[in-house]
Amino acid sequence: MPAPLSFAEQLQRASVALVAAESDADAQRIMRHDTPLLFSQLAADRAAGSFAHWGLSTVIDENLGAPVVGRTLFETLHSLAGLSADWPVGNAGVLHLYGYLLSATVTPYGLKRERWVTEALSSAAGRPSSFVSGRDGTGWLQEVTGALVPILQNPETLEGAVRPRCVVDEFAPDEREEVFRAVYVTGIAGSSAVAYGVLLGGRLRLITAFPVAATAEGWLATVAAEAPRLRYNAVAHELPARSRLAPHRQIRRL
Question: Could you state, in order of their start, the residue ranges of all structural domains in the chain?
Answer without folding.
Answer: 7-124, 147-253
